[in-house]
Amino acid sequence: MSIVSIHKLGLSTFVDSDTDLQFKEAMGEVLKNIQDERTFDAAPRTITISITIYPKNDRTESDMFVNVRTKLAPVKTNYVRLDLTTQQEMAAMNHAPLYSIDDARKAKVKKA
């Protein structure tokens, strides 16, 4: 913990600090997420720096907490459509062969 004068407080206060390191790590996560072809290419990514200040009872000092968070694009999921009338599964994305529920259960048993 360091003590900073309110008159010197600014964004430069966080340079070469733990907050600066957290920001650089967050930017790395964002850039990695952008390059990941499994994510939606045009989805926004966000870095949020939150500063919470807790004044002391005498109001002459405060504790300041800085939090850096990211919101990344989600990874695209493959989904399976289940036809409940025939109890067969059809992979909607890649037109995989149809399997019955019994086939799926047998495959699960074989893996175990």
Structure, explained:
The protein has 112 residues and is of the alpha+beta class. It has helices at residues 18-35, 101-111; strands at residues 46-55, 62-71, 80-83, 88-91, 99-100. It has 2 domains: 6-71, no CATH class; 80-111, no CATH class. Helix content is 26%, strand content 27%. Strand 4 (88-91) and strand 5 form a beta hairpin. The longest helix has 18 residues, at 18-35.
Quick take:
The protein has helices spanning 18-35, 101-111; strands at 46-55, 62-71, 80-83, 88-91, 99-100. With 112 residues, the protein is of the alpha+beta class.
Number of domains: 2
Total strands: the figure is 5
Largest sheet: 3 strands, antiparallel
Radius of gyration from CA coordinates:
25 Å
Classify the beta-strand content into a percent band.
25-35%
Low-confidence stretches: none
Secondary-structure-based class equals: alpha+beta
Determine the oligomeric state from the structure. Answer: single chain
The sequence of SSEs as H and E is: HEEEEEH
> Tell me, what's the shape?
elongated
Helix segment tally: 2
Helix content: 25-40%
Distance between the termini: 52 Å
Strand order of the largest sheet: 3-4-5
Characteristic key phrases:
112 residues; alpha+beta; 2 domains; two-stranded antiparallel sheet; 5 strands; elongated
